[in-house]
Batch of 2 targets.
Target 1
Amino acid sequence: MEAASTSIDGNRRGVIRAALDWVTRYPMLVVLVLLAVASEIVYPGFFSWGNLQNLASQNAAVGVVAVGMTLVIIAGGFDLSVGAGAAMGAVFYADQSGNMALPLALLLTLLVGAGFGAINAFFISRVGVNSFITTLATTSVFTGIALIYSNSDTVIADAANFDFLGAGDIAGIPVPLIVLVAAFVIGELVLKLSVFGHKLFAVGGNPEASRLAGLRVDLLKASTFIIIGVLATFAGAMLASRVGIGQATFGATIPLDAIAVVIIGGTSLFGGEGSVWRTAVGLAILAIVNNLFNRMALDESAQLVAKGLIVLFAVAVETRFRRN
Amino acid sequence: MAELALELKGVGKSYGATRALDGIDLAIEAGTVHALVGENGAGKSTTLGIAGGRVVPTDGEVEFFGRPLEVGQPRRIQAAGMVAIYQELTIVEAMTAEANVFLGNPVARPGGLLARGEMKRGYTDLARRFGVKAWPGMRAGSLSVAEQQLLEIMRALAHDDVRMILFDEPTASLALSEKEALHELIRDLRERGYTMALVSHDLDEVLDLSDAITVFREGNVVSSRPRSEWDKESLVEAMLGRSASSHRERIGAVAGVAEAKPYVEVRDLKVDGVLDGVDIDVRPGEIVGIAGLVGSGRSTILRSLAGAEPASSGRLAIDGEDLRWPRTVRAGRRHGVGLLPEDRKGQGIIAARTAAENAVLTDLASASSFGWVSRKKLRAQAAEAAVACGFDRERLGEEVRHLSGGNQQKLLLSRWKHSRPRLLLCDEPTRGIDIGAKEEMMATIEEMAADGLGVIVVSSELEELLAMCHRILVLSGGRIVDDVPRGEATLNGLLQKAFSEVGSAA
């Protein structure tokens, strides 16, 4: 390899090197572009407005949670309990929507999410239990609460406009799409431009150095769990709104999907590095792949296998290229 | 000419566009100790890494006892008889001392069972030869760094066919007495015919131990000569490419401190089992040094004052004002106490973030408005502070992990240049950084002191304390046992004091 590259003249070598450097830095962006082109060739009209709307609506819940997951992982944590949070959000919002105005019901739902997040945060930041273990345990707790709350039954929501959040539109643009774009834009801005975001990177990158620099490491880490708690119940509310019912079984695939999306994007699982736009790339890849599989009429078991392989591939790529 | 153990011919290493090593020639004679010195980034560690197999050279040839070395193949290189002891030890803390020595090469009986008895005998054998006192069954994590390092050397020597050992900064994290012991061991190994290569920042050590010295600068070998042709001045000059401002001049640079009343008063500082009532006064503009052995509680004093040691107690007054004893770093900071921590990597830098961001980490608010960071402000604030600490403005946008230790340390100091503490605490401010950066660090600390704040410096390098401090306190057995004003302090005096008290306390 060395011999070959030395024979190329310097200028061209520089261009090739720059291109290679870019590819190794953003391998998943390349994958996304290839996928997008491929799917447009195989299924002309893949990028029609209708299909894009569809894609966004299907993936909005996972996307919103994935934004939160990006913050949590960058700050050095991990949250498995988001599926249970979403389930609780779904049954709670569906149930309360009959009792009060929808915005109020939504607000209450998000408060429940904040409460769930606070429970995680307490054990992780205050007591010092590993976040993986904590959220593994609270997954069970939160799921149980959602089941008890709903009597393990389907909660039917018949309030007017209940479907607004998950299936409504504003001036022809689907609400889930608006929510999705807003979540990613706000997430990226907060992470890249706010003092809070900068501190999250520091805390995830080196907690001890952050502590000695006077950052409130515990509080910062805790805040990410509360944020994702809120986002998880919000995602649950969207799921319920989309189908008009709430069930404690909703959101079962959210934790793995959200984590997969963050990892595929290339945010470091070790914390301290990553970005929300990367997660957006991850989400787009997963969404396109799912959509392709659906069109090819691949059954769900095959999709599961493929999804797992994609995650493995992404992690392998990150390990080989980015860790250097 | 004597037999050559290691010979590098035109060996180079490029990282992308950066040329870390620029086609060097180097010959190390068998049975000698050969030191490689130079500033950080000069190429000495890269050279060592190539010889040890963990860095793959881009070009050139390497021969080991006349045979081509299989570069980039650490295991093959080891099998050929060359082992490397890197700065980051590869000790498995949860395993026993004995298991660590035979790690990767356990003695096994047919059938795959471990030959425990044999390994124990092997361990005891090695331990006797090298004066290791660690019990074979002790958990390696409970041993001191020096003992862990010995384990690593024992591991290296457990192979019978070892002929050459590479040491990367072997004494950087050792206490004085431990350093001496390791020096003895190295001499002893030479007696037994081993060849050794040594990378070290400690020029006294280099001059003391080696038979030949090679000086690196900017990826090239500047000069490779026998020990007898070098002295400290010529080494420094070769490393820097210019003559360094001498110690004498610098001593004159430390301004005198008026006989003002103390600016910082620390009384009865206690930490259970470590510090037993420490009193410290610092006058405005004064640099007070703390000398003592590793484990004497030097760092604990600084950490306590900074609020990083919640189990501490004591009384603190700054500028005549009695303050609540700081129990969190934030409280310490509100009092105006800033800590430059001991472990740059573990406690100081955020490796994946830019230099600019690291420089203002303690005060991000100053680079933002309404909670949003302004790139321009960040850049300006960082530039002001970092440049004052001798950091290159052009490199503010780089990720800190790509910077040399000296540059990282300048950034950490610039945090406090930026948020202007009343009491600055420096824990090993120049550990493991090159001479040029060292001088700049010391000069910046002196400048900051001259602004009228109080400074306390802890350092294992007594010469550094002698050069920059107005007063040196000797810490031993958790107490200040001596307070030596500048001018009266000598290296030997301090050493004796620090050691003798330990002896009498025990």
Target 2
Amino acid sequence: MDGAPVDLLNFVMGVFGGLFLDPVVSMFNRPDKLIQLFTQGLSAGVMYSLIALGFVLIFKASGVFNFAQGIMVVFAGLTVVTLMEAGVPALLAIGGAIVAMIALAFAIERAVLRPLVNQDGIILFMATIGLAFFLEGLGQTIFGADPKPVPVDKLLIPDGKLRLWGDVFPKPVRIYELDLTAAIFGALMVAAILLFLNRTKMGRALRAVADDNQAALSVGISLQTIWVIVWSLAGFVAIFAGIMWGAQSQAGFSLAVLALKALPVLILGGFTSIPGAIAGGLIIGVGEKLGEFYWRGVLGDGVEQWFGYVIALFVLLFRPQGLFGEKIIERV
Amino acid sequence: MTEHRRIVGDTLLKVENISLGFGGVQALSGISFEIREHEILAIIGPNGAGKTSMLNVINGFYHPQEGAIAFKGEVRRTMRPHRAAKQGIARTFQNVALFKGMSTLDNIMSGRNLRMHRNILWQMLYYGPARNEEMEHRHRVEEIIDFLEIQAIRRTPVGRLPYGLQKRVELARALAMEPELLLLDEPMAGMNVEEKEDMCRFIIDVNEQFGTTIALIEHDMGVVMDISDRVVVLDYGRKLAEGTPDEVRANQDVIDAYLGVPHEEELV
Amino acid sequence: MSDTDTFPKLLLENASRIGNRPGCREKDLGIWQTWTWAQVADEVRALACGLAALGFGRGDKLIIIGDNRPRLYWSMTAAQAIGGVPVPVYQDSAAKEMGFVIDHAEARFALAEDQEQVDKLLEIKGTNQTLESIVYDDARGMRNYDQAFLHDFDKVQEMGRAFDRDNPGFYDDAVAAGKGSDISVMLYTSGTTGNPKGVVLTHTNVMRTAENNEKMEGLKESDEILAYLPMAWVGDHIFSFGQNYTAGFCVNCPESSATVMQDLRDIGPTYFFAPPRIFENILTTVMVRMEDAAPIKRRLFHYFMDVAQRAGTRILDGKPVSSMDRLLYALGNVLVYGPLKNTLGFSRIRLAYTAGEAIGPDIFDFFRALGINLKQLYGMTEASVFITVQPDGQIRPDTVGVPAPEVEVKIADNGEVLFRGPGSFQEYYKSAEATSETKDPEGWVHTGDAGVFTEDGHLKIIDRAKDVGRLNDGTLVAPKYLENKLKFFPNIKEAVAFGHQRDYVAAFINIDLVAMGNWAERHNVAYGGYQELAAYPDVQDIVREHVEQVNRDLASDPQLGGSQIRRFLVLPKELDADDGELTRTRKVRRSFVADRYAELIEALYSDRNTCHVETEVTFEDGRKGMLAADLRILDAKTFPVAEAMREAS
């Protein structure tokens, strides 16, 4: 009789507490854990940023939403691992993968982009879906279907844990060296890409193509060359992502799904904004890790899978133009 | 009105019997004319006469089904636009095609792209020879900025500039390529009187000072008659006449087809 | 110091004393090029000898036309060095006005910046008998000019270097022959009526005034100034030429007149002059940009500007400020004032002047609140600029300060300001009559302005002396003073006040279409143009509030409180230079307006509440048309005058 309202109240209080109170309390109680999650989130975020950057570059320069980005990661990772299994030294193996990705970029330009020039975005998108299936089939033929462990030691990637600031916090902050390496190298790569875009004539040409195809052609910029370059760039990013993600678990075809993590990043940052891709990646990376840890209790397992989208939607509510989009001004 | 102090030379570009069609529409049929070194050639004609198509054929945007083009003696039918650019053909567009997100300076620098040679690695480090090269090109670009009097908008993203200035930046970008042949598609469209006068002065200055050959499409007959050495008249994809402004003005076909019948643009 | 009595001598002294310090800079092809004092001395020497080789001699006048360019400044010293007189001319003046000056000055030589100016000179040369040679600085577009009397600047300097080699000692002798009492410059001032008059100044005039001010303000070699105002204007001549030499600081020439704001940011001058109009434009730009900024940024800006208004000016004047405000001001400096000053190029300003007309108190306070030491001065060509200057710590929006060093100021019986000092001009060139009208035998110069001294010795300019009148009851009326007070309201663009030999003061008012248009947009008032908006009752009510506010302010001033505005009307058209109602410099031509709208004035002094008017207007495209309207005449409240109250109590 009067039990129902009380139950409802309890439920509401419970949800409220679970959503807002408990996480804050535990953040205060365990600042070491918070910092740890934060660093993990940042390092995951750098990876997301990189992948998103690959998407953005290709989208800006050729108007293609590249569905095959994920499989390129797998392809690149497996090339490195397979070469190393065959006894090739680490640096050479990476060099081999670079060559392979450039070759792939040339092949894609010749076989996919050039014949489809001036077609609608949706057609090009379909073409990249086809490309993804083709690469998956090709990959399984070459590398086999089984996932392979990444020989972390041979790649000289540290794989321990750091315990920091034990005297400041109740418990020391634990940081995985793998995360740290990913974050540092990821940041370096982002920096290198930005440098390339802003400081070199190729970068300027690339921005030019992204801005106006026709005008770019008229000043003597070759679209084909630019396409090869951006796809190669996306390929380099894929090598790095393949190795780092592979090192976390194993290099296998299931990694392709990880690339879809970049989707909420793109929604958040915009498909054409480079700063958007970087900031969006970091926000989603950190958000996911915090969400997973603090809200798992109320929201159930697997928060990490969809939390990024929630963040993206939440931001869009307040900034419909995305994080770095131009402010839309309507004049009457 | 203007005193041309330069010598019009040999044929620079020869258009021979060009025909171009899209599906059922014949945009150009059997057009032939030539552009001579150091001259200013105007291509005129009513809307839809095929003027812009003609420019697009010359710089490789369109590939004609018939005919050939000889540029500096080299005969070809089709060409890729970036190859045309490499050979020394620069152009501007009717509706301004600039890199709207980039600054005036970057837009003009992009016109220097073909002339930069240092490799990517040096460029990324922005060091040594690449840096010197960048400075050298920057100097050339600054001269063009000075020439076209656009110092005040150096750092402004061109998307924010008024139309008349965008047209000027586009001309600057084309000039940065140091072209032998400059194609201008309605360089004065949408400009007020003062901007038109400035643009006229710039075109003549470019022609006289750098000896650049110029082919331009223009609707303002006053401008055409003032600044061009020769005029080609197109109508419905065919060539009606070719000659000096005076000859063209006196040509009966032209009077009937174009000047005699009031067209929208003449009212301007 | 006594033997360095001319600018060419001073240049030689600077070249040996601070030869490696920058003397001037110019932005060319996107890069700031610097000339040291030693280099400047070389350039001037080559040019002077080149001019001599062209036949320029003692007593010759050199017309100088163009934007602020180092070479144009050098040409002044070069002309002086060989006994000539530079005559800078406003670069935007029409060929006819320029022609008058050249004729009047009997100039044989001219130095033009570029093709545009050369074209004007060629036009003039058709009718002018004296002009012989023209030197041009920028060869751009000059390739088709082959007249023998046209000389490229570089070529002239080349000739000069050869001449110098062939005639060793010529230059040094010529410089040594100069005296402080020689004419150093002739500046033509455009009077509101009649032809321009050539104000003759000597080296001593310019140098003493420059030095006195330099000492008063502590100007140093390390100061930087941006030269962007016309070279023909006396202010630029003192700041960018006179003090450039006496203080030895660096003058920076902008890339072009369109890039001044950008160049200002590049240079970050320490010493800056701008007329009130420019400060007003800057403030408007800032405000507009802030309205478009993100809400947080906007709120931050307004909050800290409030703090600045409260504390900034007091801090600048060395007055006590609460430590909380001091703290907030410091925070504001980091968050708002610093970045704002940086974008404006005002970060390093130690001393900024404004003059020429009254500056709105809001505008004045805004910049002072930011921590910019903006001060007013009162000056004129005939004084080599400085008559009065506001000393540090005694800054007020409504006065122009105390007499400048060595300058005496007094008020004549009719209210006119008179001065006497080291900068007092010699004469109007070839106009003995005009000279004696302006300068009396004891050396007192009539400024033509009416002013009053406040109790603590600050001068307050209220109007042109000839415009000051009296009501029928003898009350003093300064129309311009009232008009300026009205114009300080952003909603009021122009005002014309009447009252001489009337019973009370009345005024015409022009609303500001931009400001009022904004108001209309916010209040969903649709209007077809100026006329419609001006006739809108709510708009007129807003104007009435402004008028009454002015009356309230006036009431507190015992000297002028009697001249409150009793009736006014809002004109149906904007006063326009094309219709002859304004001068080209946008000053109201009072008598013309009074004639043209005589019936409106009569209506203002009748008991009617409406009046019909028909008048001719010139549209933007030059066409003429007729405008007819029925105007409302409005009454404004007046307030009891302070002094009267004091007397009563």
